[in-house]
Amino acid sequence: MELKYPAIVLVLIALDCVGSQLCPKKCDCDMYNGLNRATCEDQNIIGVEVGVPNGVQIYSLSHNVISELENFRFKEAGYLSIQVLNLSYNLIFWIGLHAFSGLEKLVHLDLSNNRLRYIPSDLFWDTPRLTTLDLSSNIFEALKNEPFIMHSELQVLNLNNCRIKSLPDRLFTRLPNLKKLDISENYMITLNTKVLVPLRKLERIELRNDYWKCDSDFIDVESWIASKSISYQKQCNKKALKMSEKMISIVSVEKEDVDVNDVWNITTPAKNITVPVIETTTLTPFEKFDKEFSSMQAFIIGLELGLAIGVVGTYIWLRKFCHCGQLNCIRPQTGRQRRRAQRVRDNDMRTNLLWSNVISPDLDTPPSYRRHPSLPDRSPPFPTYGVPVVREAAALQVDAIRLPDRGETPPPPYHECRINI
Ligand SMILES: *[C@@H]1O[C@H](CO)[C@@H](O)[C@H](O)[C@H]1NC(C)=O
Ligand SMILES: *[C@@H]1O[C@H](CO)[C@@H](O)[C@H](O)[C@H]1NC(C)=O
Ligand SMILES: CC(=O)N[C@H]1CO[C@H](CO)[C@@H](O)[C@@H]1O
C-alpha cells in the first residue's frame, strides 16, 4: 500500500503531462510556415484558454464568442511563444491593460470584427515586437485628441470600417514606424494633414470612402499626400461626379412647387418689357419660322405635304396610262383582245351559275339534318368500370349540343365527353 500511492500520483502526473500536449478537440493543430498553429474557430469558445499546448505560435480563436480579454490570461496559460494571434470575429468589447502581458514574441494581432469602442493607448506596452495590428470593423466612433496607440515598432495599422467620423490631430503622434495605414470606409468627410505629419515613415495610406467632401481643402490634402510620396488611391475625380448625381436625385425627388414670387424679386418696370419685342422684329423670316414652329409641327407639315404630293402624283399617273371606270381599269383594247375578254366573261358567268345551283344559298349554316349530331348512346351498357354514372351531367352535355341555335358548334371531341362520365 505504501508503494502504490506514489505510483498512482506518478501515473496521474504523467497523464497530465501527456494530456496537456494533446490538441484539444475544438482545435486543429498543424504547421504553417514552420510555426505551430492551433486553429480553434467557430466553437463558441468564451475564453482564450482551451487547452492548446503552450508551444503554440499561431493561435486563432476567430469566430467565437469571447467578449473580454482579462489581464495576464495568456501569461498564466503559458502561451509565451505566440507570434500570430487571431481574435477576429468575436464579441470583444473590453481588453485589460495587461491582457497581452507575456506575449513578447507577438508580431501580428488580429482584433478585427469585434465590439471595441476604446483601447488604452499603452495597451501594447507588453508586446514590443508587434508590427501588424488589425482593428478593422470595430466601433471607434468617438476618438479623443490623444495618441490612439503608443508603439515604437508598429508598422501596419488597419482602422478600416470603424465608423470613425474624424481623425483628431494628435491621433498618430506616437507611431514613429508606421508604414501602412488603412482608414478607408469610415465616415470622415474631411482630413487634416496635421494628423498625418507625425507619420514620417508612412508609405501607403488607404482612403477609400464615399463621404469625402471633394472641395479645394481635400484636394490640397491629396496633393500633400502625393508630395510626401505616400501612395494612395485618388478619391476626388470620381467622387465629385457622385456627389452631383446624388444632388440631382435628391432635387428630383424632393422638388416642391415653388412660387417664384417667394424666391425672386419681380418688380420689373414696364420699360424692360419693350426690349424683347424690339429684338423679335429684327429676326429674318427664316429665324421667325424657326421660332414659331416646333420640330413636331414641322414633321407633321412635312408628312401632310408628302401625302398630298403622293395623291396628286398617283392621280396624274392613272389619268395618263389608264381609262378609269368606276372601279376597274380598262386599257384600250384591240379587236382580238376584246373577243377573248368576251369569251372569258362568258365562261365566268357559266361557272357562277353552276355553283349557285349546286350549293345552297346559306352556305355557312349546315343543313338542318346536320344540326342534330348523332351522338353515341350515353346510357349503359357501356363500360363504367364500376363508377356510378352521373346522368345529369351527361344529359346536360347532350342538351347543350342539341340546342338549335348552337347548331354550328361542333360537338366536343369524344374523349372530352368521356371525362364527364
Ligand atoms: C483571422 O481569421 C480570419 C477568419 O478566419 C481570417 O479571415 C483572417 O485572415 C485571420 N487573420 C490572420 C492574421 O491570419
Ligand atoms: C427688389 O428689386 C428692387 C429694384 O428692382 C429693389 O429696390 C428692392 O430692394 C428689391 N427687393 C429685395 C427684397 O431685394
Ligand atoms: C432697358 C432698361 O430700361 N433696363 C432696366 C431694366 O430694369 C433694371 C432694374 O430692374 C434697370 O437697372 C435697367 O436699366
From TrEMBL:
Gene3D superfamilies noted in UniProt: Ribonuclease Inhibitor (3.80.10.10)
UniProt KW Transferase keyword: no
Transmembrane feature ranges: 298-318
Top-level taxon in the UniProt lineage: Eukaryota
Endpoints of the signal sequence: 1-20
Stored InterPro entries: Leu-rich_rpt, Leu-rich_rpt_typical-subtyp, LRR_dom_sf, SLRP
Database matches in PROSITE patterns: LRR
Keywords, ordered alphabetically: Leucine-rich repeat, Membrane, Repeat, Signal, Transmembrane, Transmembrane helix
Pfam families the UniProt entry points to: LRR_8
PANTHER family tied to this protein: AGAP008170-PA (PTHR45712), INSULIN-LIKE GROWTH FACTOR-BINDING PROTEIN COMPLEX ACID LABILE SUBUNIT (PTHR45712:SF22)
This protein's name: Uncharacterized protein
Protein source organism: Loxostege sticticalis
